[in-house]
């Protein structure tokens, strides 16, 4: 799924920081440094970003399988 727009605990907007977080981690920064740079100081907001699982990206890996093997055959 997509990252929630707001932190569930405090209500701070965090949805706009996900792509920046991924870019910083990919640029060889630690998660701690990336979260500090994004201004996420509260542990509830940090939890929201650190524990998010991007299910859409995982599910897109299986789209090719579904298209190739699960189409009904026409006879």
From TrEMBL:
One of its GO terms (molecular function) is DNA-directed RNA polymerase activity. Its main location: nucleus. GO terms for biological process: transcription by RNA polymerase I; transcription by RNA polymerase II; tRNA transcription by RNA polymerase III. It is found in: Nucleus. Keywords: DNA-directed RNA polymerase, Metal-binding, Transcription, Zinc. InterPro entries: RNA_pol_su_RPB10, RNA_pol_suN_Zn-BS, RPABC5/Rpb10. SUPFAM superfamilies: RNA polymerase subunit RPB10. Belongs to the archaeal Rpo10/eukaryotic RPB10 RNA polymerase subunit family. NCBIfam families: PRK04016.1. This is DNA-directed RNA polymerases I, II, and III subunit RPABC5. The lineage of its organism: Eukaryota, Fungi, Fungi incertae sedis, Chytridiomycota, Chytridiomycota incertae sedis.
